[in-house]
Specification:
The protein is built from two helices and six strands. The chain is of the alpha+beta class. The strands form two sheets. The protein has a four-stranded mixed β-sheet, with no helix packed on it. The radius of gyration is 23 Å and the shape is elongated. The relative contact order is 0.09.
Amino acid sequence: MATVIKPKRSEVALSVPAANSLAVGELAMNVTDGKFYTKTTGNVVKEVGGAGAVTLQSVVTSGATSNQDITLDGANLVFEGYQANAFETTLTAVEPTTDNTVSLPNSSGTLAMDGDALAYGIVFGG
Protein backbone atom coordinates (compact mmCIF):
# COMPACT_ATOMS: atom_id res chain seq x y z
CA MET A 1 0.00 0.00 0.00
CA ALA A 2 1.36 3.43 -0.99
CA THR A 3 1.98 6.06 1.63
CA VAL A 4 0.43 9.49 0.95
CA ILE A 5 2.53 12.41 2.11
CA LYS A 6 0.69 15.70 2.50
CA PRO A 7 2.67 18.83 3.36
CA LYS A 8 1.05 21.62 5.31
CA ARG A 9 -1.22 23.41 2.89
CA SER A 10 -3.45 26.39 2.31
CA GLU A 11 -5.97 27.25 -0.39
CA VAL A 12 -5.99 30.97 0.42
CA ALA A 13 -4.53 32.96 -2.51
CA LEU A 14 -1.20 34.73 -1.71
CA SER A 15 -1.01 33.06 1.70
CA VAL A 16 2.57 32.42 2.87
CA PRO A 17 3.15 30.31 6.00
CA ALA A 18 4.45 32.07 9.09
CA ALA A 19 7.92 31.07 10.28
CA ASN A 20 6.54 29.84 13.61
CA SER A 21 4.23 27.40 11.80
CA LEU A 22 7.09 25.48 10.10
CA ALA A 23 10.03 23.43 11.32
CA VAL A 24 13.37 23.95 9.52
CA GLY A 25 13.17 22.09 6.19
CA GLU A 26 9.46 21.32 6.50
CA LEU A 27 7.41 21.86 3.33
CA ALA A 28 4.19 23.83 3.03
CA MET A 29 2.12 24.35 -0.12
CA ASN A 30 -0.29 27.01 -1.28
CA VAL A 31 -2.54 24.93 -3.51
CA THR A 32 -4.29 27.95 -5.09
CA ASP A 33 -1.03 29.67 -6.09
CA GLY A 34 0.84 26.44 -6.89
CA LYS A 35 3.78 27.39 -4.65
CA PHE A 36 5.88 25.45 -2.14
CA TYR A 37 7.60 27.00 0.88
CA THR A 38 10.16 25.89 3.45
CA LYS A 39 11.88 27.44 6.47
CA THR A 40 15.65 27.96 6.64
CA THR A 41 17.87 27.63 9.71
CA GLY A 42 17.85 31.44 9.76
CA ASN A 43 14.09 31.30 10.52
CA VAL A 44 13.19 32.68 7.05
CA VAL A 45 10.33 31.24 4.99
CA LYS A 46 11.36 30.93 1.34
CA GLU A 47 9.55 29.87 -1.80
CA VAL A 48 10.92 26.60 -3.19
CA GLY A 49 11.37 26.01 -6.89
CA GLY A 50 12.07 29.37 -8.43
CA ALA A 51 10.20 31.71 -10.70
CA GLY A 52 7.83 29.28 -12.38
CA ALA A 53 4.91 30.37 -10.21
CA VAL A 54 5.93 34.01 -9.78
CA THR A 55 3.75 36.55 -11.57
CA LEU A 56 4.08 40.29 -11.94
CA GLN A 57 0.85 40.56 -9.96
CA SER A 58 2.36 38.66 -7.02
CA VAL A 59 5.41 40.93 -7.05
CA VAL A 60 3.26 44.06 -7.09
CA THR A 61 0.89 42.72 -4.44
CA SER A 62 3.69 41.85 -2.02
CA GLY A 63 5.46 45.19 -2.58
CA ALA A 64 8.65 43.56 -3.79
CA THR A 65 11.08 45.30 -6.13
CA SER A 66 13.38 44.01 -8.83
CA ASN A 67 16.64 45.22 -10.35
CA GLN A 68 16.15 42.80 -13.26
CA ASP A 69 14.35 43.43 -16.55
CA ILE A 70 10.70 42.41 -16.63
CA THR A 71 9.54 40.92 -19.92
CA LEU A 72 5.84 41.02 -20.74
CA ASP A 73 5.24 38.46 -23.47
CA GLY A 74 2.15 39.66 -25.30
CA ALA A 75 0.79 41.37 -22.19
CA ASN A 76 -0.22 44.96 -21.54
CA LEU A 77 0.19 47.20 -18.52
CA VAL A 78 -3.25 48.30 -17.31
CA PHE A 79 -3.53 51.28 -14.98
CA GLU A 80 -6.62 51.65 -12.83
CA GLY A 81 -7.27 55.09 -11.33
CA TYR A 82 -8.07 55.60 -7.68
CA GLN A 83 -11.66 54.57 -8.48
CA ALA A 84 -12.07 50.94 -9.52
CA ASN A 85 -14.53 51.37 -12.38
CA ALA A 86 -14.97 50.49 -16.06
CA PHE A 87 -12.28 52.94 -17.21
CA GLU A 88 -8.55 52.16 -17.33
CA THR A 89 -5.46 53.31 -19.23
CA THR A 90 -3.70 50.50 -21.11
CA LEU A 91 -0.07 50.71 -22.21
CA THR A 92 0.58 48.35 -25.09
CA ALA A 93 3.28 47.77 -27.70
CA VAL A 94 2.70 47.33 -31.42
CA GLU A 95 4.29 44.07 -32.61
CA PRO A 96 7.99 45.01 -32.97
CA THR A 97 9.97 44.12 -36.07
CA THR A 98 13.27 45.24 -34.54
CA ASP A 99 14.67 45.92 -31.06
CA ASN A 100 13.47 49.33 -29.86
CA THR A 101 14.14 51.50 -26.82
CA VAL A 102 11.81 54.21 -25.55
CA SER A 103 13.46 56.48 -22.98
CA LEU A 104 11.46 58.52 -20.52
CA PRO A 105 12.98 61.94 -19.76
CA ASN A 106 14.48 62.77 -16.38
CA SER A 107 11.69 65.23 -15.64
CA SER A 108 8.08 65.39 -14.58
CA GLY A 109 5.26 66.25 -16.95
CA THR A 110 2.59 64.90 -19.22
CA LEU A 111 3.21 62.82 -22.33
CA ALA A 112 1.63 64.12 -25.53
CA MET A 113 -0.40 61.88 -27.82
CA ASP A 114 -0.94 61.81 -31.59
CA GLY A 115 -3.46 64.47 -32.51
CA ASP A 116 -2.52 66.75 -29.60
CA ALA A 117 -2.30 70.07 -31.51
CA LEU A 118 -0.80 72.05 -28.60
CA ALA A 119 2.00 69.52 -28.05
CA TYR A 120 2.70 69.39 -31.78
CA GLY A 121 2.93 73.18 -31.91
CA ILE A 122 5.37 73.31 -28.98
CA VAL A 123 7.63 70.53 -30.26
CA PHE A 124 7.60 71.43 -33.94
CA GLY A 125 6.95 75.18 -33.69
CA GLY A 126 3.67 74.97 -35.61
